[in-house]
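FW: tagging you since you asked about this chain on Friday. Here's the raw sequence from the shared folder, copied in full. Didn't touch anything.
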Amino acid sequence: MATHPPRKPSFVYDVGQEPDPRFSLANERTFLAWVRTALAMLAGAVALHSLQLPSTSWLRGVVVVVLLLVGAACTVLAFVRWARVERAMRLRQPLPHFSLGWLLTAAVVVVSILLAVTLTVG
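HL: got it, structure written out here
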């Protein structure tokens, strides 16, 4: 029987028991969905910058930076959430609270307000 190299990250995989693979795969799909969301934020930032929208440069800069930072934070927090959920499943513990949605909601609201101000003023 072939031996497999140890899985990484060890702080996730070196504890508890192996959960049902369906749950681990669902957790992975959720992680990938958050990464796609982060990529959409990054693409939006690039599009606004490339098209020079909004026309007010300082506001465009603020919106682009907010989108870039939220995209980066979303990716990092998606990994942290994946690891926490996987670890909780392995230890047969309750799943951790969900806070990533709050960050994304707040960011979309802030960007929407900034763009709405630009459209009504400009």
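FW: The CA atoms of residues 8 and 14 lie 9 Å apart.
HL: agreed, and The chain has one domain: 19-116.
FW: great, closing this out.
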